Amino acid sequence: MTSMAQPLLPTPIEGLETPALLLDDARMRRNIARMRTQLARLGVAFRPHVKTNKSMDVTRLLMDSPSGPITVSTLKEADYFAARGVRDILYAVCIAPNKFAHALQLLRSGVRLSIILDSMETAELLVAFAQANGACFEVLIEIDSDGHRSGLAPDAPELVPIGGYLQQAGMVVKGVMTHAGSSYDSSTLDGVRAVAEQERAAVVTAAQRLRAAGVACPVVSVGSTPTALFAQHLEGVTEVRAGVFVFFDLVMAGIQVCTLDELALSVLATVIGHQADKGWTLIDAGWMAMSRDRGTAKQAVDQGYGLVCDLDGRPMDDLILVGANQEHGIVAHRDGRLADLTHLPVGTQLRVLPNHACSTAAQFPHYHVVGTDRQVHHIWSRFSGW
Ligand SMILES: Cc1ncc(COP(=O)(O)O)c(C=O)c1O
């Protein structure tokens, strides 16, 4: 069920009720081609992370075949894609005991689901559940390549015992995986290249240690958009999981991984008023539309809650969303100067580029897929929740 009146397509974006999430079809396809070219050069398989798009229509364009492979961030994502024919799914957040039954249900429905963990504690709980239910799970051990969040250090003493325990207990130790989240904090491309090499070396070291101890470890999986696009080589790695590249966003542009004209996602918004004495123009896209993500706040150029563009997607005169209430966005000049914004009367439509594509897209139930003619050609649904 949707409350949105479905317009006859194609329809000009000017006719849309706002806020609306626009997806630039040509940019998205170029972004996908760019990643594919890079991964072909590196000689690694692609297991796209679909948490950014959460939509079968987008994911179809990313997958090698209708059955996958893909990476997901929730089991609900796994359900959604499995119901649409995807069969090879990696759930890339450490499993918790209250999700074992759900994972088993996916396995028994014919999905080749792999799960991850990073402790003996979880391994023992998983094995107990598997043995009680006559199940066998395919497991990857998560490696921490940069101190960013979860995972075992590549030289952690527990690594080999966990792998050995899982294997002896009849589980399939599919391999090791890592996510170099610190690449998002890089300020130069050389910095990204260094993180990419650190990511590669960490996970390859972990795989070598497991193999030397007799633990089969066929899969060596890495992935973040910056490291995938700027890795010099990926020797020893078998697959890459990247996700946000499909749309890119201001954070990625801030680390120079992409240019502003590669950003495929924007929020269409409408001017609803002015506070001339403050230099503000109010639009109908606040944080409910843009999200609260302030990922550019710690970058060299702080883009507030988003970079304001005209209807063709061209940035306007250094206007950003300096503030965001639930439904009100406050547009002003980046440098705080008071300027005459009467060229933006009430009713003017603007496109706002998001800081973080994953969080902004998550605010909307649909993508309005826009062609180079500025017309909406498709409305693609996406899902949310856990
Ligand atoms: C485990 C894992 N793999 C891959 C990715 C993809 O990273 P990116 O969105 O930078 O491509 C993420 C993103 O958070 C992740 O958590």
What do you see in this structure?
- With 386 residues, the protein is α/β, with parallel strands linked by helices.
- The chain folds into two domains: 135 residues, D-serine dehydratase-like domain (Lyase, Ornithine Decarboxylase, Chain A, domain 1); 194 residues, Alanine racemase (TIM Barrel, Alpha-Beta Barrel), CATH 3.20.20.10.
- Helix content is 28%, strand content 24%.
- It is built from eleven helices and 18 strands.
- β11 and β12 form a beta hairpin.
- The two termini are 18 Å apart.
- Bound molecules: pyridoxal-5'-phosphate (PLP).
- Pyridoxal-5'-phosphate binds next to loops.
Q: What is the CATH C-level name of the largest domain?
A: Alpha Beta
Sheet with most strands: strand arrangement: 3-10-9-8-7-6-5-4
Strand content: 15-25%
* Structural classification: alpha/beta
Output the helix-strand order: EEHEHEHEHEHEHEHEHEHEEHEEEEHEE
Strand tally is: 18
Mean pLDDT value: 96
Bound molecules: pyridoxal-5'-phosphate
